[in-house]
Structures are given as C-alpha cells and as structure tokens.
Amino acid sequence: MSTGQPIRVGLEQESDYAFRISFDDTELDPLLTDEPAPLGHDQGPNPSRLLLAAIANCMAASLLFALRKFKNTPGKLHASISAGTERNADGRWRIPSVQVELQLADPADDYQQFSRILEQFENFCVVTQSVRAGIEVGVTVKDGTGAVVYDSGSAEPA
C-alpha cells in the first residue's frame, strides 16, 4: 500500500474557544472556528460542523468524480447533511450517525452507467470511508518549555 504526503493543519487560539486554522503548504486564507454559546461566541463553525461539512463535501465530490468517470456532464450538485448528538455512557456528547442527502440536477435516466456509479461512488470518498473505518488519533501535550507532559501514543502520518 502506498502512502501519500502528510496533510498538515495548524491552529492558534485567538480568544476563549475561537481558533484560527491555517492550512499548511497552501495559499488558503486561515479559517476562524468557535464554539457556540455558552462556551464560545459563534464567530465561526465549530469542529462538529466542520466534520459534517467535510463528510458532505467529500461525498458530493466523490459522486461528481464517479459521474465524470463515466463521461457524464452533470449539472450542479447540492448536498446537505444532518446529525443528531447524544451522550455516551460517560455522559459526553457524541455524533453517533449522520445523514447525507445528495441532489443531482438531472433525471437519473440522463446519466450513462448510473447503476455502476451508484455502486462505487462512496468508495472514492476519503473522509467518509476514513470516519466509517475509524481513525487512530495519537495525542501529545507539551508545556510552555516544549517538554512533553502527556503522550497517548503515536499516530504519526507515514
């Protein structure tokens, strides 16, 4: 199995629960995120909304890729996603499931190889398939001197 380049993102706390996210190795403008009240001030999307956006965006892009792979020229796609939250056994909020809706611009009969497209497009979605399979997350905490004060184990990108 080949390994791609690591994807790197940096965050810097701006105030309270607001963080400025920079997308390393890109020319993209930083993005401000924040938690909703009462913790934050709703200055930007929170991590849960970013997760949902990533899933829906990836699914729409994967469907578009599959449609074009079979020489279709689809109109504009629309996507929406919703999720409920519930507390786990420890009383912590979690997102147990999401529901994505993808809307095509044209009738299904207008697309070539449509049944094959529907059979395979989800497999092209890096984000959704990664979330479904589970992602190992390693966490290291360093103090102000740079000393490691916590290490849950490594999940370094290859």
Structure report:
This protein is elongated. It has 2 domains: 7-45; 46-151, 2-Layer Sandwich (GMP Synthetase, Chain A, domain 3). The model has no long low-confidence stretch (mean pLDDT 92). The chain has helices at residues 47-69, 114-120, 126-133, and strands at residues 9-15, 18-23, 31-33, 78-83, 86-87, 93-94, 98-103, 140-142, 148-151. By secondary structure, the protein is α+β, with helices and mostly antiparallel strands. The longest helix has 23 residues, at 47-69. The protein has 3 helices and 9 strands. The strands form 4 sheets. The chain has a 3-stranded antiparallel beta sheet, with no helix packed on it. The chain has a two-stranded antiparallel ribbon with strand order 4-7. Strands 5-6 form a two-stranded antiparallel sheet.
Write the layout of secondary structure elements.
Elements: E1 9-15, E2 18-23, E3 31-33, H1 47-69, E4 78-83, E5 86-87, E6 93-94, E7 98-103, H2 114-120, H3 126-133, E8 140-142, E9 148-151
